[in-house]
Amino acid sequence: MTEPESSRCRPEGTYDVFLSFRGKDTRKTFTNHLYTALLQAGIHTYRDDDELPRGEEISYHLLRAIQKSKISIPVFSKGYASSRWCLNELLEILKCKNRKTGQIVLPIFYDIDPSDVRKQNGSFAEAFVKHEERFEEKLVKEWRKALEEAGNLSGWNLSDMENGHEAKFIKKIIKDVLNKLDPKYLYVPEHLVGMDRLAHDIFYFLSTATDDVRIAGIHGMPGIGKTTIAKVVFNQLCYGFEGSCFLSNINETSKQLNGLALLQKQLLHDILKQDVANINNVDRGKVLIRERLCCKRVLVVADDVARQDQLNALMGERSWFGPGSRVILTTRDSNVLRKADRTYQIEELTRDQSLQLFSWHAFKDTKPAEDYIELSKDAVDYCGGLPLALEVIGACLSGEEKYIWKSEIDKLRRIPKHDIQGKLRISFDALDGEELQNAFLDIACFFIDIEKEYITKVLGARCSYDPEIDLKTLRNRSLIKVLGGTITMHDLLRDMGREVVRETSPKEPGKRTRIWNQEDAWNVLEQQKGTDVVEGLALDARASEAKSLSAGSFAKMKRLNLLQINGVHLTGSLKLLFKELMWICWHECPLKYFPSDITLDNLVVLDMQHSNLKELWKGEKVGNILQSPKFIQYVIYI
Questions:
Q1: Co-location of 441 and 421 in the same domain
Q2: DSSP characters for 99-136?
């Protein structure tokens, strides 16, 4: 049998869909059309193309394909029950479903009534007359029971849908499969070193079949790989539950206005798969979580928990989640893990492991190039076994001459072992040119977890050349990652970038180039302490009671290019404020249209989601602006 081409980019032997069908009935017709449509939709599908006579038992290869598929689709046709091979496949499919591995079974009734499958009538009855003559009674009973169970499952019946039009029928199947797949897998780096054993131990503890709510805690120093291991285990477990949620960067999010309530809302949304009413306060969120999730078997990862109140807001008691639920906590502080049933501490990598990980990023190999062995060992020694530092420093040195290596390693030697940000700062200082460094700082302060296209438009206005070059360089240096079209960054790298900005004016935020901290932004604006140094400011007042600000608060910020004022009501003239802006993010803007005296000559991205904005300007100005060649270059999100 040849491996389906849809599986070649996946972990070996894993599939989205397993197709079970009677070859003589549908191989070259319906099933072939369905298989092609699944592949075109990017759904990794297993279809057995072996048309040779088969033995009595399912092969190991086929057995594993069933077990490693997220969805199984038996295509019940008139001749399905005549094939003992199909019936044995169905037995294994239902075993996987009933083992609570999370496998979904979606039967298709093709030119046959579900009751014929359920009760073994018609052609199914004829097939079983022959089976009873040839096979043991016990096996025949198992087949009958499997067909009865499958016939009762919710699926698709061609005769009931689209008046029998197969093309439309297949489109509906594809849409349903895509909705049910709803990819839960999280990105993890391709080359993981020194994490296999720990990930296996955590998986084994959490996958043991028990009805209690089990909690595993992972702790260790920043940048050691806690989040990565949690993602590995999450990916292994996520399809075995009624719902799952990975809450990232809890400590950072909780610092936002109403941040814990936002996390509670995300938890409910991700598990229930439906919009949740706004949660105005944490206590209300606790009640909703307890009421909505207490009967659901769920998998929840709470990543980077720093305080007990953060954990209590998301899981005050085990009884908030249904029997058999599993929770993974990651934290830098082991004191937070008092509720955990078992805790796992991540240690620094050994020297050999460190050298291997470093080499992946510096040389794209498991070991250093011959001429760089001693230099690589020196670099590894000063990274202290910290995976993030090894990755970033390795990427920073990749492709450089020996004299550059020696210079950078000398810098590492002068930095205290515990100063992680100091080591990461080397990668920032090594960036060529002020514009590249500014691109990194803009992302660290304002644009983490934002779509790449969105960020590219903003950076393109801020620099004098193609921003794609900068993003590629930052990605190659391991300073950013692009996941599914979204740009993200490790929290230590984010903190390092923000510290680069903060240290230019430690005590006066209004004299920094970028203001991202909510408290700093309020103070600077309310007290009108901004200066012409400020290039970007972000303020989210959607969860705040005080939402009104005077446009005069921005009067001194002559170089302000980037502005986020979500939920803010601005009073006074906006004419001067908007003149230099390249990015405006104003969610829940109360204005219905902009005053006619303001200009947006430099604007590239206008993000007005959930606002009252009906049109940009009233009157003739709108028609004139819309005809301007420059205006149609703007990217507008409304």
A1: no
A2: TTS--EE--EE-SS-HHHHHHT-THHHHHHHHHHHHS-
The mean predicted confidence, pLDDT, of the chain is: 85
Q: Are 158 and 169 in contact (CB under 8 A)?
A: yes
| Same domain flag for 363 and 393 | yes
Q: Is the pTM of this model over 0.85?
A: no
Output the six-digit token pair for 157: 């019946």
Residues annotated as catalytic are 89
User: Which residues make beta-bridge pairs with 69?
Assistant: 15
At 473-525, the pLDDT tens digits run: 998 888 898 887 899 988 888 989 999 999 999 999 999 999 999 889 999 99
Return the pLDDT at 7. 36
Q: What is the DSSP string of 566-606?
A: ET-EEES--HHHHTT-SEEE-TT---SS--TT---TT--EE
Only one residue has tokens 């072992």, namely 417
pLDDT at 619: 54
Chain mean position to CA 5: 25
Q: What's the domain count of the chain?
A: 5
Identify whether 404 is part of a domain.
Answer: yes
| Structural domain span for residue 511 | 504-637
Residue ending a domain, choose from 379, 409, 429 = 429
Whole-number Å distance between alpha carbons of 323 and 122: 42
- Residue 188 in domain: no
Task: Looking at the structure, tell me whether residues 293 and 326 fall in a common domain.
Answer: yes
Same domain, 362 and 341: no
